[in-house]
Amino acid sequence: MVPAAFASGTQTTDTITQTGLKPGQVKHVWTIVLENKSYDATFTGLNQNSYLWKDLPAQGALLTNYFGTGHYSQDNYISLASGQATSNDLQSDCSYKNFDFGTNKNIVASHTGANFGRTDNFGQLLSPAGANAANGENGCTFPKDIPTLFNQFDAAGVSWKGYAQDLHNQPGREDALGGGPGTAANNPTTNPRVMSTSASDKANGITSFTGAQSNDQYVAKHFPFPWFHSIIGDDNTGKDALTAPAGGTMTDANHIANLDDPSLGLISDLKKPADQVPAFNWITPNNCSDAHDPTCVGNNLSGVFDANGNPNYALPLTTPPTNHTGGLYAADLWLKYYIPLIERSAAFKDGGLIDVTFDEANPPFYSMSFNNATDQTKVAQDAAGNERYSYKTPTIKDFAEGYKQYSANTFPAPGPMAQNYIKADLAGQSINGKGVDWEPTGPNTPLAADENGNQLYPGPGDNGYITRPPSCEQDTTLVNADKSNCVSGAKNTSSSFSGAKDLAVTAAAGTDTLQGAVSVSDIGRAVTGAGIPAGAFVGSVANEGPNLVVKPSDPVTNASFKLVDQQGNALKTTAAVADVTLSATGVPGHLNPGESPLSTFDAQDATPGGGDSGSVLISPLIKPGTVSSTYYNHYSWLRTMEDIFQVVKGNDTKQLTAGSVSGGLDGLGHLGFAAQDGLTPFGADVFTNAAVDQTANPTPTPTKTTPAGTPTQTAPQGTSPSNPASKHPEVNAAAKPQASGPLASTGVDMTTGIALLVAALALIVGGVTVLLVRRRHEAHEA
């Protein structure tokens, strides 16, 4: 439905803050959140997902520097919905128990640094267990005085709905309010759900609360609604939530629905007149269709596509799949099925905006990608030219430093593979028009290092995909006798090293290539076994896929590795090989006998964010083929939505512990870290067609001059075409500041504005001259 603020049709010509949009230009938004893929995995050709990689960017805007705010998963959904920062239980996807994450008394009620600056935690929730508390000590559900975007919508009269694929498919699995885990009787205050499954759960058909099962691939950790008392209320009825939508509750069937419900689902809603479709639509595909699972235990929709790869809408969605391949293959199928339905709807043609984004960026390596960015395969080499970052293929010589003995509590610098992985833990956003390589850490996941430069805490990036040294105090089973291989004071390291591993392989005699289930993290491990020459190691690794697997347990990639000696020279098998043993891995600089240095080890680099995932937006307000390299993140997204729907004009200004629903924290309608001073929302670099009359061509299509998959570059906010953003966020710090004068809200910089004024004056002078000449001519004829 059209927001009340826009229903009168008396739109002003003023733009909305920095978005460059006029009030009411965007009337309907569909936000689709996918899972766990980096920009380099998705938008380069590495995984051959051509619909998301090529087709959709050609219809709209590709954001090449859109960052997640943390790892892993659930904390990102919280940031999108509320602007709240990371905490350990959420970074662990509420894997222990869903109990209350403190009370209103734990909300930071005063400024802790420069107002709305980098260190200001005003309005953030501080864990009752303190900063860096371990998983299981914090809780997962926020108290009622932490409002969300959806509460702001209620107060502003903006209609909304949350759709989740497979929601309620399995009775008793996600029947708590808002799609929360457990039965309808479960609630985080008096009846918290333990997230491991009991014998009783399994007897009732529930095999997992945190992962997919064959008949129900929904997971509550990817749906933001059940994790806020401001949405579900306190009394487990939903009637005492912080706000209420017109004519119902925030958790009723008109606001929380199964994506494919025949009467309440997305397809049913899209058939309605534009003014009857919710203004904001949140869509969570299941754990298969969102690209999370490499193979799908349930349906991936492959059965409803014809031989030419087009969806057959005459077939029911329950049609058995033709394969069980997941990842970006399954996400492409889902998008190719649903996006055209949205685009054909009356609501999309009436100020529509589709936003396809990811929660976080996992590195472009197996098992988070079908193919490895470092491989020498043609697919990987072709993709390399499109990648945001440069990745180095490690060699056995890169491990030499790890075999040396280091002094106590010091370690070698990270090797190439760890440096590859750490790119998925970067942060980025724009402040006052300048790209920066940081985000606020919040009160629960600060960053710090010891005197040796060793990182002490996981930070928002949660030590993602790399391996830290053990904590001298917490990881006692990994600490050696003299405590020389650990870091004193380190917390929540998630430090782990592999024991020796037996591996089934296939290799003929006289070859240096072995087929077996390996990944890039195995590079550098010693290899022993019958037919393996002495002094052999895992050299380069290749993972090629996806395979269209018949069963979820089938290998989705073909994996192989080269056999090399310690100088990197090729070694050949002396006989046919059927199985080998890979050595145990250990702490570089402090190895025990028989151990090899772990390739992902990194003691020194911080993990400040969720990595660059990229994002795609499609709208009549966006020129097809637009590309923006401005640095954005989930807090930028939240601020954009708050500004687009003008939530600050809502009627709920009651004082909360910090701020209010409508006013947000800053009095401008911004919640959590969306209220950072100078945070840049999506602007004229994204909404490149906002000044054009939309009635002439309401549906975005690729232009004749722009081939599909070859977007037109536009200058991002805070940069200039002659100095485009580089591959690293910090380069943008020196970029041109965003205009702050009267033209700032239009997205037009001062230089362009002056040029336009000069042109206008020239036209006026020219017009006056023509008029005078004409009058003289008329007088002469008279």
From TrEMBL:
GO terms for molecular function: hydrolase activity, acting on ester bonds. Residues 167-200, 693-739 are annotated as: Disordered. Keywords: Hydrolase, Membrane, Transmembrane, Transmembrane helix, Virulence. It comes from the Bacteria. Residues 702-722 have a biased composition (Low complexity). Residues 184-200 have a biased composition (Polar residues). The chain crosses the membrane at residues 753-773. One of its GO terms (biological process) is phospholipid catabolic process. The keyword Membrane applies. This is Phosphoesterase. It comes from Bifidobacterium tibiigranuli. The lineage of its organism: Bacteria, Bacillati, Actinomycetota, Actinomycetes, Bifidobacteriales.
